[in-house]
Amino acid sequence: MKSGKKDDSKEKGQAPKEAKNAELDPRFAATVKKMLDTPPKPYKKEGQNIKDSD
After folding, report:
1. What CA–CA distance (Å, rounded) separates 22 from 31?
2. First and final CA of the chain: distance in angstroms?
3. Per-residue pLDDT tens for 10-33?
4. How far is it, in rounded angstroms, from Cα 41 to Cα 38?
């Protein structure tokens, strides 16, 4: 049982590490580049302000 708990804590310890390495992940970089290259799409019609929908 001890080794099982140790593995759980090991996975928890890796989660933040993966988050830090996400910036180095080519898939992450490609996603960000795609997001930056794509102009934002309005949720409502262009005539309406998005602030009004809040």
Report:
1. 11
2. 50
3. 445 444 555 556 567 888 888 888
4. 9
Q: State both tokens at 39.
A: 């102009």
DSSP letters spanning 6-27: HHHHHHHHHHHHHHHHGGG-HH
Given the structure tokens 């996400």, which residue do they identify? Answer: 22
What would the mean pLDDT of 33-39 be, rounded to a whole number?
A: 86
User: 53: closest CA among 24, 9, 43?
Assistant: 43
CA 48, 51, 53: angle at the middle one, nearest 5? 70
pTM given for the model: 0.30
